[in-house]
Amino acid sequence: MDGVLWRGSQALPGMSEFFERLFARPLDFVLATNNSSRTQQDYVDKLARMGVSGIQARHIVTSGTATVSYLKTQYPAGTRMYVLGGSGLKRMLDCAGYELVGACAEVVVCGIDFALTYEKAQTATLLIRAGARFIGTNPDPSFPSPEGLVPGAGSIIALIEAASGQSPTIIGKPERAMFDAALRQLGARPEETLMIGDRIGTDIAGAQMLGLQTALVMTGVETEESLRASDVQPDMVFAGLPDLIEALLPSRSYP
Known about the structure:
The protein has ten helices and 14 strands.
């Protein structure tokens, strides 16, 4: 959602109209984000503050919710987990019945942690070296903010990977687990679904691997130079949501 619908707390041009057109059609949709720090309700509330009503938890898939869904297939409730991540991710894991601990963890879950310290990184590293499974919510090295690109979960995961010598299991885009979770929540097949994103390496590449149509908006991390240099090319490219709306959701198509 960052880089497509908003940047930080600032809505990007066309956001409100985009949802108006989706609801007017109506078209089924999910909002899939690699941000693991917030819950589904956090995003519902954020969109409401931005003036977008009608969004429900069923419309939201995060790398955090996808990670919890994956962990449920691997570990029973009560499994001890150490979390590098925000309060949203911790709440989701706690609600799933996992025990969040600071030592003797069987699994280390690593996402974006805005309060990261050396001590936290050290604990995660030592746990993994002692045999704990290493799970990463998403590989994004950075994300757009009002000040520019800032470190993302992928940068933290890379730090722990380098220190522990172990590669993580990644859940978020471009991995299949994230797209499967979104399609399952949407109740749609890949060939009838369009992925709109701002990042080629995660949004576009992951969607194309599963057979989704893709549209890149240039309001996030990509530049004209990075687009030209990429081996992965989206099916459509738009400067932003206003151009996408005009091309794909024109007002003249309404009854």
